[in-house]
Amino acid sequence: MKRLLYIVIVSISLSFQGCELYDTYADEVNAEFIGSTVSFETATTIPDSVRENSIPLSLEVEMPYAIQTSRGVEVTYEFEGDATFGTDFTAKAIEKNDANSSAVVEKFATANGGTFIIKNREKTQDESGEQSFTNTRNTATIEISPLVVQGVDKPNGKTLNVVLTKAKNLDDNTVVTVGQGGIKKEYNLLIRDIHCPSDLDGTYSAQITKDEGIVDVPDVTITKTADSSNPDNIWGLYEISNVAGDLQDIPFQIIDQCGEFLGPSDDYITISGTTSSDGKISLDVLFSDGITTRQWTLFLTKN
């Protein structure tokens, strides 16, 4: 019985090791306790997915533990992957070195990457009267902005890896480790294309969420927006005749971005949506005219 219990424990232990983020046990220990290091605040085990032309993505870089330096730590970063700087994305570093942690310096990247400085901003005094730095708010941000001017134009998107390559203490130019153990040195992104072929025209069987649950409603039509009604030449723009339950019919527009949906800028309608593996479209719709507010989900299956 004891032998069986030992085998089970060993098996469980090995199964956990199979999910380990570190190469060795020493890496795991050092990842938590190494002092002189800078790293990304979070690690990516799979690429973080963002849409072309989406809002900028902020990647926090931190001192996990305070580094004894008055001038700060200078960090260098580079880009890897098949995404092209200036075509698929731009980037900048934002230093937050003042007392209230606001963005006081912006440093724009080039195709080769860039540099920024993280400084200590607070000191504490121990029982003996010694003052030492703390790591409170010792962070900087690398901001990645996916572009759409020339587009990604690749069905599977493009990879972008932001890599912390080196760091040094500006007081004495000593080397500061980047990353923690085997992680947090590289942040992986996938910039997804929004210019996929789109053919949504047609009639759809519709359901809508109501207080009593999901109920059937009359069919909905989706129609490609005429060029005359699309002066900005928005890719994948459609008109949709919507059923808003017991409110009233509220026609609106959706933008198809490779099976994910949003709405053009509108003072009354906010939309987000996805396409499931079986082809069903679900649209989360929020309507507000300042007097009436209504929120619902519309489910559409092409006839």
What can be said about this structure in brief?
By secondary structure, this protein is mainly β.
What does this structure look like?
Helix content is 8%, strand content 44%. The protein is mainly beta and 303 residues long. The chain folds into two domains: 36-189, Sandwich (Immunoglobulin-like), CATH 2.60.40; 202-302, Lipocalin, CATH 2.40.128. The chain has an eight-stranded antiparallel beta barrel. The chain has a six-stranded mixed β-sheet with strand order 6-5-10-3-1-13, with no helix packed on it. Strand 20 (269-275) and strand 21 form a beta hairpin. The longest helix is centred in the first third of the chain and has 16 residues, at 2-17. The chain is elongated.
List SSEs in N-to-C order.
Answer: HHEEEEEEEEEEEEEEEEEEEEEE
Instruction: Quote the average pLDDT.
Output: 81
Major sheet details: 8 strands, antiparallel, barrel
The CATH fourth-level homologous superfamily of the largest domain = CalX-beta domain
Sheet-strand content, in percent, reads 35-45%
Features:
single chain; 303 residues; mainly beta; Immunoglobulin-like; Lipocalin; six-stranded mixed sheet; 22 strands; 8% helix; 44% strand
Topology (elements, then pairings):
Layout: H1 2-17, H2 25-33, E1 37-40, E2 48-51, E3 57-62, E4 73-80, E5 89-95, E6 105-108, E7 114-118, E8 123-125, E9 131-133, E10 139-146, E11 158-169, E12 174-175, E13 177-178, E14 186-192, E15 202-210, E16 213-224, E17 237-240, E18 252-257, E19 260-262, E20 269-275, E21 281-288, E22 293-302
Parallel strand pairs: 1-13, 2-14
Antiparallel strand pairs: 1-3, 3-10, 4-7, 4-11, 5-6, 5-10, 8-9, 11-12, 11-14, 15-16, 15-22, 16-17, 17-18, 18-19, 19-20, 20-21, 21-22
